[in-house]
Amino acid sequence: MTLTLSRRTTTVLLVLVAVIVVAPLVLPGIEGTFRGTDDAASVAIEAARPGYQPWARPFWEPPSKEIESLLFALQAALGAGVLGYALGRRHGARSRDVADR
């Protein structure tokens, strides 16, 4: 099955993507600090139970935020690669099955 998009549909989709990317950068009142879920969870736990002490500690912490971001990006890239490989294998197997019929 081949999917073809009209020129108008493609243009509309590209404009929509551009608006989604640019809007947060130019709209006023959307400033804020970028914080992760770990920070949000820590704040929520501290609000619910002041003085709470975690029962588990990490066995290693990255030496800097940059290294932590690098490791997160590598993890995401590895996951995307595995997912892409699995989907490609599945698509290839399905294509071979159709060709064999």
From TrEMBL:
Pathway: Cofactor biosynthesis; adenosylcobalamin biosynthesis
Tree of life domain: Bacteria
Protein name per Swiss-Prot or TrEMBL: Cobalt transport protein CbiN
Quaternary structure and interacting proteins, as annotated: Forms an energy-coupling factor (ECF) transporter complex composed of an ATP-binding protein (A component, CbiO), a transmembrane protein (T component, CbiQ) and 2 possible substrate-capture proteins (S components, CbiM and CbiN) of unknown stoichimetry.
Bilayer topology: Multi-pass membrane protein
Keyword field contains Lyase: no
Keywords assigned by UniProt, alphabetized: Cell membrane, Cobalamin biosynthesis, Cobalt, Cobalt transport, Ion transport, Membrane, Transmembrane, Transmembrane helix, Transport
Stated family: Belongs to the CbiN family.
GO CC field: plasma membrane
Transmembrane segments: 12-30, 69-87
GO molecular function: cobalt ion transmembrane transporter activity
InterPro entries: CbiN
Major localization class: membrane
Record organism: Siculibacillus lacustris
Listed GO biological process terms: cobalamin biosynthetic process
HAMAP family in the record: CbiN
Compartments (UniProt record): Cell membrane
One Pfam family, short name: CbiN
Statement: the UniProt record of this protein carries the keyword Transmembrane: yes
Function comment: Part of the energy-coupling factor (ECF) transporter complex CbiMNOQ involved in cobalt import.
